[in-house]
Design a protein that fits this description.
It is globular, with a radius of gyration of 20 Å. By secondary structure, it is an alpha+beta fold. The chain is 41% helix and 16% strand. It has a seven-stranded mixed sheet with strand order 2-3-4-10-5-6-7, sandwiched between helices. A two-stranded antiparallel ribbon has the order 1-11. The chain has a two-stranded antiparallel ribbon with strand order 8-9. The two termini are 25 Å apart.
Amino acid sequence: MSDAATLAAGAKGLLDADTPDSVRLGVTEATELGARALRSIGYSDEEAKIIVDQLIDNALCGYRFASLPRILAIATDAKTRKARQPVKIVHETPLSALIDGGNNVGYISVYRGVRIAIEKAQLSGFASVGIYNSYYSGRNAYFVEMIAKAGLVGIHVASAQPRVLPIGGARPALGTNPICVGFPSANGPVVFDMGTAALMWGEVMLHAHIGKELPEGIGFDAQGNPTRDAKAVLEGGVVPFGDHKGYGLSFTAQALGLLAGAALATGKVQDYGFLFLVLDPKLMLPGGEFPAQMAELVAKVKATPRRPGVDEIRIPSERAYREREQRRKQGLVFDRKVVDSLNAL
């Protein structure tokens, strides 16, 4: 019996169901599979570790599409086949840094960027860091949780190449453009992470890989016609979430990506840019009250009287953190086609 099967056999109330089309792996097994696949497409042991650490955490938090399937996207992306240069700072002040990602995947370059942002904010109380000439950074919350664990408030915005149709448009003009904000509290980080698209591009790619249709009204083909065929949507795009409000947020994230240098590598204003704004709460509240106040705010919100049939009121990130610990014991479920494809690499 595999490591994951042993775990699952002794666990009650599995979060993720086993099916004939899925494979359950233990964290160690999944980590080794991901690292092998990454090394096979040219990443060093150190680079593979940085990437796979996030991918496994994404799976633990319940984001299967943002986990091992992303290696398949990296492997087939044209950028992966181009030459890479070391990640380097091209402009720096005590409060800021602009980083050329060297065409490295964002899991690596943005990880470097967030470490620099944390160090600068701890020294000066504030930091702004941008990363460009990179792609695919993964889940924003992974980086922002690092910021919050360091006792800092973090805002992270990522712009991308066009995948999202503007309201009334027949062709993509915006990226899926996630926005994430994180806060330290006396009871641990509180992180809110949202994509501004109705469906994240990684989910579209996973649907296409396993041959699953998309929900109605989300995807459009290359001619701007609505379709549920995920492969056709890969040639077109998806709509923003929440109509004009999501569109406005997506446009805002695209603009903020320019501050991170999105247009510097190729001259295109619709490209990848990763921006961090990090603040030490003591810059505003020198007495250090913020973590306790944040914990009190969480408690007040959770104590709100509930409507009939509601078991609890949750706050952002609570589900993910709770399920993270459960999946460590139960193992991680992946689509069999994804595991087979990774092994084939």
